[in-house]
Amino acid sequence: MLRDVLGKTFRFLGYTVQYGCIAHCAFEYLGGVVVCSGPSMEPTIQNSDIVFSENLSRHFYCIRKGDIVIVKSPNDPKSNICKRVIGLEGDKVCTSNPSDFLKSHSYVPKGHVWLEGDNLRNSTDSRCYGPVPYGLIRGRICFKIWPLTDFGFLRASPNGHRFLDD
Fold first, then answer.
1. What is the pLDDT of residues 56-92, one digit of tens each?
2. Is 102 domain-assigned?
3. What's the rounded Cα separation, in Å, for the pair 17 and 23?
4. For the chain, which ranges sit under pLDDT 50?
5. Residue 14 falls within a domain, yes or no?
6. CA distances, 61 to each of 86, 88, 148 (Å)
7. How far apart are CA 7 and CA 143, in angstroms?
8. In which domain, by residue range, is 64 found?
């Protein structure tokens, strides 16, 4: 009887570890569901919207300008942020706020990306903390899941004019 109970317990633990490893790999390498909070990506992503983030793009270095990414916050490594990629390494980007009279520009260093929220007036982004290392990117948002009225692929940036193609 004891042998039977121990056998079932170890089988259960074995399956738990096995499925736990599969789930970890799926969420780490394939993607997952993310709940977004804060106003920085409005109007594209509203507070409490639910999106799907795929992680393969970051592993294969397929992140492009205009993509919306989930990134470990440079200010607080315990939290993630959601921002749009405005510039990749070597790109010239506008580093000033839209309301600034004199515009300043800079180049994104090797191994970094320039991130900005779509709501430029209410976003803490690369204009505050500078270029972000590519290694902090966790995934690329593919489409919105919730609310159902907005289900589907995300809109283009309302700030497309800030992308410089020099």
1. 888 888 899 989 999 999 888 899 999 999 999 999 8
2. yes
3. 10
4. 166
5. no
6. 16, 11, 31
7. 44
8. 33-163
Considering the domain boundaries, does residue 6 fall inside one? no
The residue among 116, 15, 130 whose CA lies nearest residue 74 is 130
Tokens of 15: 């399956």
Count structural domains, the chain.
Answer: 1
Q: Look at residue 9 and tell me if it is in a domain.
A: no
Identity of residue 112 = H
Whichever domain contains 132, its CATH number is 2.10.109.10
Beta strand pairing call for 50-54 and 31-35:
antiparallel
Q: Is the entire prediction scored with pTM above 0.85?
A: no
What are the angstrom distances between the C-alpha of 97 and each of 52, 125, 141, 159?
30, 11, 25, 12
Give the chain as a 3 state SS string: CHHHHHHHHHHHHHHHHHHHHHHHHHHHHHEEEEECCCCCCCCCCCCCCEEEEECHHHHCCCCCCCCEEEEECCCCCCCEEEEEEEECCCCEEECCCCCCCCCCEEECCCCEEEEECCCHHHCCCHHHHCCEEHHHEEEEEEEEEECHHHCEECCCCCCHHHCCCC
Active-site positions read 40, 83
